[in-house]
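OP here, attaching both records as promised.
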Amino acid sequence: MPSCVMISLHVGSSRGSAEAIKAYLLSLGVPEVWICTEMGGGADFRAAIHNAVDSCDVFLPLMNQQWADSGECYDEYSLARRKNLTSFERGVTSKGQPRKPVFVPIALPGLDWSAPHIEVLASYTNFLVHDQATVAPDAPILKALARSLKSLGFALPKFEDDGAPLSVAPSSAIAASANSVSPAEQLTALIGAAMTLLPQLKSGAGQGGVEEDTAVEIKDTDYSKVLKPRYMGILQQNYGGQMVWALEIEFDKSRMEPGAKNHITFPGAITYSLLNHVEDASMEEHDYWHKWVMEHIANKSNDVETLQCDLDVTAGLIIAKGVSVTQECNLIAADEYRLVLSVQGRTLTGLSKGTTKVPYDSTFRAKAF
């Protein structure tokens, strides 16, 4: 059983929701649920928050856009993240156990999933997505929260799970974050990212002694220092409903080889994890995407796509072609991706070529991790 759950919230917009969550968790037997609204007058609130993060087993951010924009909430998140990443080293947890505090985020409508700290959190943590701006005392999200805590190994002796499936959230849950991006917007984003890095690539190639009429030598180019081996981000799609995926993109830099003029080739892989799906009410059961999503959810599998990558060192553009897909459902053919590096290689902006008639129908951004 978690001895302490800390709810991180934007007080002005989520106080009632936090109090409803607290009451529910206490009713299940959780010994302590901490929210900052209960501090007494004259209390050192920063010290109190630090102590709450330091002692909690579960960090539960109640995430709306006000939370995402709040500097105080960001500080709480950053402190909890540091505590989580160092819990083994500090002796709080041991290998084989989850790092603490465990993150159990609840996303509310209107949240901008592209905010950097939310994007990083989404890349390794499943979100609970609520379809209303507030959490009522009888909201289905509370049962989902209890099930999540149990799945993480926390005992909740007073929780009686009837096993009934939770109702699918309506499309309003992530509609704002999962809207299609037009080809013009995609092209603008890619051009902007490419132009950011282009001067560095040209100057880096010159400093490395690469002649314009010779093939690239891997050891002489600066690009291996710009490209990071691992990026994490999110991808939103509107096939058969609305889906939010966590992406983990890996490049095997140890296997870089010279390609065509000013090009480097190397293998890579991209792992997809389904974070959330909002079903299209008009979709028939035999529909391709309905079948795919239902099988994917039933198998609880991650999809791993191996890639063969071709990097143009003068333009910062990676053409990554799917070689094979390993997954339980075997319903998707390999994709092709156009990836552009920016911000000293810390950001990867991408277009994904899917199965629709639109050449590149999904866009995403990932951060070096």
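Record two, same layout:
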Amino acid sequence: DSSIQFLLGSMYKNGTGGVKKNINEAIKWFEKAANIGHYESQYILGCIYRNGFEGIINKDYSQAMKYFQQAAKSGDSNSKYFIGLMYMNGEGVEKNFDQGINWYQLAAETGNNTNGNNPLAQNNLGWVYTNGIGVEKDYQIAMEWFKKSASQGNPSANYNIGFMYQNGLGVGQNIDEVIKWYTKSAENGYAQAQNSLGLLYKVGFDIDRNYGEAFKWFSKAAEQDYLEAQINLGSMYHAGQGVRKSYSEAMKWYKKAADLKQSPIAQYNIALMYLKGEGVDENFKEASEWLLKSAENGFSNAQYNLAMMLINGLGIDKNEDKGIEWLKKAASQGHDKAENALKERNLI
């Protein structure tokens, strides 16, 4: 019985029902069910091979596509969505926007939630029409798809509707609508919406500035390892906005962003804290090392500051030639102070 085989596969995949987790044993049972047309097993096998599994099963896009296509023949909308995604991304197939959009539409349009009306596909169709990927840009059609997806509670679609209102894409700019849709998304745990809400409240974008609300939403997004929110939360602690000033907390969040995602902005902020002795002993050598990391990641402010330290020998060995190289890199990105420094030396 395919449903029993599927259940056994699920138990081995998750390590439930008194059995030890064993993905190879799970695949064996899923394959038995898949071979007699059990579409849920076909779909799960597609996901296992598309994503790989805990370092035990390697990604195999051709196997993933095979199982998704089998499940799609039974009408499974999730599999149709993933076939579309694989064509859009060129995963195991040649990138083909027409095919991708066709599969998204098959997943998004027809039947009930099993056979269609897929909120992920609807949201991605909205994104396709917003950005003109394989189709002419059409903000009205995009909004229709986002709203269909949002009506099923998709927090990404809620965010995208807010983004459309914030930027006046096919609708008039409306801060009340922005806050409404971002909040819906943020309350459902969508980190990008949480960070965007935080920015609105921090900057006071057509609303009253509210550092407490900004801090709250940055914290929620930062806890999900959302890079921009980690930097923003660090800056709130750094400046004492919406929370008691704490250089140690600022450093903690900057370092999370710097270590996990190699953020050049976070690396630069850490360097500044060492230069100024904020919460740490003033340490020009440590500062120069963080500036170098940020500069190598292309951040022009870091390139300029590192250049000046090298040219003047501030805490590190003087090296004017190397400093000029970093000035030129910063200037090439339009950094005004770097350009002026080069002009003073008759180098541009």
